[in-house]
Amino acid sequence: MRLVKPSLEWKQQHENFMVKWGSDRMVPSSMDLSVFDTYEEFLFALDLRAKGKHPWVPSSHYFLIDGKDQIIGMVDIRHELNEFLRNIGGHIGYGILPSERNLLVKRSFNKM
Asked: How many structural domains compose the chain?
């Protein structure tokens, strides 16, 4: 598995991930495409977040890619915290596709 930064290359897979995720609240919320008209808008907004443009704190955003080059999760790493994040969000926000959650645990134990 590896982490990769979101880019146009991953657009279709990201859209597929959203469908697989379903109607539950997207975690991390910064990866939710439903509030953007285009993927380019999403990437621009992610860049603003990465730079810590108000009201966001500086952060890094990644897709978790499995051995088959499929997005199975997403993560935000926050390099600073504001009051809200200190109390609720923390430094890391992540989401793993529900269909992959138990598989990740099994894969980890099988390598031991």
From this structure: 1
